[in-house]
Specification:
With 106 residues, the chain is mainly α. It has 5 helices and no strands. Helix 4 runs antiparallel to helix 5 (87-105). It is flat. The protein starts with a helix and ends with a helix.
Amino acid sequence: MPTVTMLGKKIIADKLGEEGFIVATANWIADSLFVTLGVTIAIWPLLVYYFGIFSIVSPMATLLVLPALPYLLFSGTLAAVIGVFVLAAGQVLGWLAWLSASYMLS
């Protein structure tokens, strides 16, 4: 049985072709959107139950924040580990983590 992601990739391949930067970007956006919507649909009953509210813009906010998350995790972990041994290097790497974190918070 085809999944929504497979159907999305098939539509993209039919419209844009099989390879190229635009196709790869469209596939990445489609994958991110489907994962975001899947998680949102899965947890919305818990959000409404515990917080009493559901935000309509949360899928779009998650989609915009998603690209910054790996950079934040990697640079934050690297800053913490290296900062234990060389404080100045850890601080510089911490500024990289701060860039991703400030983007996500804004």
